[in-house]
Amino acid sequence: MTPEELIVNVEKALEEIRPFLNSDGGDIALVSIEDSKHVKVRLQGACTSCSVSQMTMRAGVETTIKKYAPQIETVVNVA
Prior knowledge:
Blueprint: H1 3-23, E1 26-34, E2 38-45, H2 53-68, E3 74-77
Parallel strand pairs: 2-3
Antiparallel strand pairs: 1-2
């Protein structure tokens, strides 16, 4: 997968997740993809102070991104 295809696939994953975050007053943005293996995202809005944001990152965001781009090893939220 080329770097461009990887970005497109990660953005597709975020589009799948976004409606769930929006319904709770939050959002998510892609910050960067490093070494084609490590994704950095930024939770926004209500998601920045949500008590279950870590669970959302693991169960929702990371799982969905890996579905679209299996080579991704880590997904982290950056402030």
